[in-house]
Amino acid sequence: ETGVTQSPTHLIKTRGQQVTLRCSSQSGHNTVSWYQQALGQGPQFIFQYYREEENGRGNFPPRFSGLQFPNYSSELNVNALELDDSALYLCASSSRRGATGELFFGEGSRLTVL
Amino acid sequence: TQLLEQSPQFLSIQEGENLTVYCNSSSVFSSLQWYRQEPGEGPVLLVTVVTGGEVKKLKRLTFQFGDARKDSSLHITAAQPGDTGLYLCAGVYNQGGKLIFGQGTELSVKP
Fold first, then answer.
1. Which of A28, A92, A100, B111 is such that its CA lies 20 to 30 A from the CA of B96?
2. Cα(B18)–Cα(B25) distance, integer angstroms
3. Do the chains contact at A103 and B45, CB–CB below 8 Å?
4. Which of A80, A29, A24 is nearest to A50 (CA)?
């Protein structure tokens, strides 16, 4: 059974640029959630996708957007990067819509915005 | 707005000591999860508590959910260096699929 994999693991961007982060969900999982974890903080919910449809969104501006593909892998896109977007971006997959099922997290993508 | 307050934020203890981490909220959650996160890794689920007053044990770790389902605690007995890590509580809020995380407790256990 393959776990959740994320790419890239580290990246550096400059302010104003755009970034795409990718996530492959665990085999058999149809739900993917994205979280942002700033240094020294707990993760904050960005949004969740269930069977290619958005199933809830946290308090993030529209420049944070996402996509889920038919194979349930997912992308997180962030436009017009700001310095405060520097964080660890975590993807989590589960076999159930919502938050009641067990979430399996990837190792994250560490984004630094200069 | 649902908020989870964790305390303490940092804890540095000697091997063999006991410790308790607290997670408090003004909101009622349907369930609460505890995660452990090591540097460079994603959080790993330790336990889910669902029923008010529920107590679950995982080896030397004891988890309790408050009667009103607004608070929880994690107690570690005889801590070991391998327990070092970031401990996160997360409230399950069913609308929209999100988990509300606390800010975490950074635990360091020195040999």
1. A28
2. 24
3. yes
4. A29
Burial class, A20, CB count within 10 angstroms (exposed 0-12 / middle 13-18 / buried 19+): middle
pLDDT tens, residue by residue, A28-48: 899 999 999 999 899 999 999
Q: Which residues contact A88 (CB under 8 A, 6 or more apart)?
A: A36, A37, A38, A39, A108, A109, A110, A111
Predicted local confidence at residue B95, as pLDDT: 60
Q: Mutation test of the interface with chain B: which of A25, A31, A93, A105, choosing the one with the most B Cβ atoms within 10 A?
A: A105
- In a mutational test of the B interface, the residue from A5, A36, A45 whose CB has the highest number of chain B CBs within 10 Å is A45
Q: Considering only alpha carbons, which residue of chain B is nearest residue A5?
A: B42
Considering only CB atoms, A99 lies closest to which of B6, B40, B93, namely B93
Q: Measured between CB atoms, which of A4, A41, A57 is closest to B96?
A: A57
Task: Give the burial string for A59-88 (b: 16+ CB within 10 Å, else e).
Answer: ebeeebbbebeeebbbbbebeebeeebbbb
Pairing of strands B85-93, A109-113: unpaired
* B31 in reach of chain A (CB within 8 A): yes
Helices (H) and strands (E) in chain A, counts: 0, 11
pLDDT confidence of residue B107: 97
Cβ–Cβ < 8 Å for A66, A58? no
Cβ pair A33:B97 closer than 8 A = yes
At residue B83, the 3 state secondary structure works out as helix
